[in-house]
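=== RUN LOG ===
request id: a7f3
mode: sequence -> structure
chains: 1
length: 192
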Amino acid sequence: MVAGTGARRAKIEAIAALLSRVPPGQVPVAVAFLSGELRQRQIGVGYASISAPQASPPAAAASLTLAEVDAAFAAIGAITGPGTQAGRRELLAALFARATEQERGFLSRLLAGELRQGAQEGVMTEAIARAAGVPADLVRRAHQLGGSLPEVAQAALGPPGHDPAQDPGRVEAPDPDRAAAGGLAWGAEIDA
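=== RESULT ===
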């Protein structure tokens, strides 16, 4: 949906719609991934490591969550010492074994730094504002002061049951329907 959309407004709307359905605790991961970034920055996986796990058949149905993928990337990046590359390949293969064909494509491009779907900072800022129902200027200002767009998105969209009156640093109250959102089959949303 995002990658196949050329118009800026349409990208903003598509990303905002997706963010409004992301479970609140996974918002920073979604924003980072949609922006083509890993929260861990570098995890020590190169092109050869990315293509090797795709030799096994893909999963038939989407089951991965953003939190699971983020945790897998953190575990891959944390491996050190003798056998580091083999350990990373093993964890990456386990992740890819659970991914559908579409999710594999997204993960491969994300890991290789080749996502190129047009969700740059400006588009993402506007989408966060739209999803949170706040002016984009507030999100831009919070980003300038805070430095991390995923963290600003978390503050703008908030955790479930969050009372904005108890948090004066919060950008605005979240949509109450968001708290009921369940898992996310994110591969189809991002790439379609």
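=== NOTES ===
Residues 163-192 have pLDDT under 50 and may be disordered.
The two ends are 4 Å apart (CA to CA).
=== END ===
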